[in-house]
Amino acid sequence: MKPADAIQDLQYFGEFGGVNPSISDSSTYTFLSAKTMFDTFEGNADGCYLYSRHSSPSNLYLGEALAAMEGTETSNVSASGMGAITAVLMQLCHAGNHVVSSRTIYGGTYAFLKNFAPKFGINTSFVDITDLEAVEKSITQKTTALYCESVSNPLLEVADIRALAKIAKKYNIQLVIDNTFSPLSISPKILGADIVIHSLTKFINGSSDTIGGVVCGSQELIDCLRNVNDGAAMLLGASMDSLRAASILKNLRTLHIRMKQHSHNAMYLAEKFEYEGIKTVYPGLKSHPSHNVFKQQMNKEYGFGGMLTIDVGTLIKANELMELMQKQNLGYLAVSLGFYKTLFSAPGSSTSSEIPEDEQKEMGLSEGLIRFSVGLDNDIERTFQSMKKCMKSVGVL
Questions:
Q1: Residues 185, 212: contact at Cβ < 8 Å?
Q2: Cis amide linkage into residue 118, ω under 30° from 0
Q3: What average pLDDT does the segment 156-172 reach?
């Protein structure tokens, strides 16, 4: 089943017949008997709610839709993408364990694995995720998780999920995929991933008005995350608010329409930028080193996603161009992604600034790199012509 169809096949009615499910705006819930309260606390009373840090009806509605989209048994929503990422890694790993991670990942995830997790005796090897031999060589007897992003932030490296899944299964470790950059376009679970994570803040919500995260996986995993005695999601407490869950669920229903337009516009700009001689990275371009990998594992109708990068050489020139494009109302100089308006930033000094400069250079993250989250512009040709004028004005063209 197509991922968008799986979302739309779910049917929710509100308490009074509303076409949207009722919002459970409550932090705690009553019981008719003390025994039922005890059973619920122990996780043995299906359909009963105890306290909203455990779960709530609104959160479960959203979680069910996201699990359907990713093709997993169930999911657990959280207050942020980092709340989802950290909970999974802390659940999978114990003191003395080891993680193999892509070297190009979101700066917050990198900082957690590099600087925070070692406090708990968890160490990480960062590798070129496109070098399958290097990935396998990095696995040790203590490795419990292989972590990467479907499309990496910010360099847009594409993970060969099928190949990585074979490696993970060979060594009996969990393959964890952050699919934030490519919802609907790529379905990691179908390709062999064990766990799929999203920052709901980005494309899935799409309106830059809330933050949220989700872990999609097996019932066993989600039960472990929610366990009151040793569940990382439960005890770290990054719980999503019911009002936010209801809002994200409404926006999720239009994700398939938005992703098609994001992808269409990004492909158009990428082709135009490359034609003009600008160093452009976009998975939809044949010049992308992993173009065929993406093509072989994508859900074609949703395209290659809404993220692209260009390299203008220096940070000074990048900042000058971004400031001028914002002044001309072509987008906003802002971090994050998935908004209706194009967002652009220089990752080396923003979303990837947690990565030391020498490591940025080693992975190919130059100071002149600009990351674009391409918006939903109706007339993308007009947008390009205006961007071209800006580029000429600052000497990029």
A1: no
A2: no
A3: 98
Judge residue 275's burial from the number of C-beta atoms within 10 Å of its C-beta, 0-12 exposed, 13-18 middle, 19 or more buried: exposed
Confidence of residue 140 (pLDDT cuts 50, 70, 90): very high
Q: What are phi and psi of 6, to 5 degrees?
A: -60, -35
Strands 343-345 and 332-333: parallel
- Look up the pTM and report it: 0.94
Distance CA 190, CA 188 (A): 5
> Domain locations in the chain?
3-252, 256-393
Q: Which of 352, 276, 356, 259 is nearest to 310 (CA)?
A: 276
Q: Which fold has domain 256-393?
A: Aspartate Aminotransferase, domain 1 (3.90.1150)
Note the pLDDT tens digit of each residue in 20-62. Answer: 888 888 888 887 788 777 777 766 666 677 778 888 889 999 9
Instruction: Kindly report the backbone phi and psi dihedral angles of residue 52, in degrees, each rounded to the nearest multiple of 5, phi listed first.
Output: -70, -15
Q: What is the mean pLDDT of residues 316-333?
A: 97
Region class of 368: left (phi > 0), else alpha (psi between -120 and 50), else beta: alpha
Q: Residues 227-284: pLDDT tens digits? A: 989 999 999 999 999 999 999 999 999 999 999 999 999 999 999 999 999 999 999 9
Looking at domain 3-252, its CATH architecture is 3-Layer(aba) Sandwich (3.40)
